[in-house]
Amino acid sequence: MARLNLLRFSPFRLNRLAAEFSGALAEDYARFGIDIPEWRVLATLGLHDGPRSAAYVVRCTRTHKSRISRAVGHLAGLGLVERREDEADRREIMLALTPAGRAIYAELVPLLLAREERLLAVLDPGERREFERLLGKIEAGLGLMRCDEEP
C-alpha cells in the first residue's frame, strides 16, 4: 500500500502556509471589524477605481458566492461598500468601495504589505522572485485569474 507523508504533500503544505499567512494578516484587519472574506472583497474592489460585480469578486478570490454575499452585506452595513445596479444588466449587482471603505483600504494596505515583508523575510531577493514566479506558474496551470486582470 502506498503511503502519503502529509507534511511533504504540496497541496497540504500550500494550504498550511496560506492558513498561517491569513491568520497573521487577519490580526491587522480584525481591528476594523472585518474578517478574511470581507478583506478579500475590500482588496479586490480597492485594486480598481470603478465598481466590479460580485461575480468578479467570487472569480478573483475563489471564495464561495454565499461567503462573498455575506461579506458584502456586512461591509455594506458598516458603510464600507455600496451595491449598485448594473445599468447594462439589471440582474447584475455592482460593488464599489465607499469613501470610508477606500480610507480603510488605504490604511490597511501599508500594514499588510509590511507584514507580508516580515513573513517573507526568510527568502533573499532572488528567492522571492523565484517564489513569485513559481506561484504564478502554478496559478496559471490551474487557470486562476489574477485580481489585476479584467474579466
Mind explaining what this structure looks like?
- The protein is mainly alpha-helical and about 150 residues long.
- The chain has a single domain (about 5-140), classed as Winged helix-like DNA-binding domain superfamily/Winged helix DNA-binding domain (Arc Repressor Mutant, subunit A), CATH 1.10.10.10.
- The chain has six helices and three strands, in the order ααβααββαα.
- A three-stranded antiparallel sheet has the order 1-3-2.
- β2 (about 80-85) and β3 (about 95) form a beta hairpin.
- It is globular, with a radius of gyration of 17 Å.
- It comes from Methylobacterium oryzihabitans.
- Pfam families: MarR_2.
- InterPro entries: HTH_MarR-typ (IPR000835), MarR/SlyA-like (IPR039422), WH-like_DNA-bd_sf (IPR036388), WH_DNA-bd_sf (IPR036390).
- GO terms for molecular function: DNA-binding transcription factor activity.
- This is MarR family transcriptional regulator.
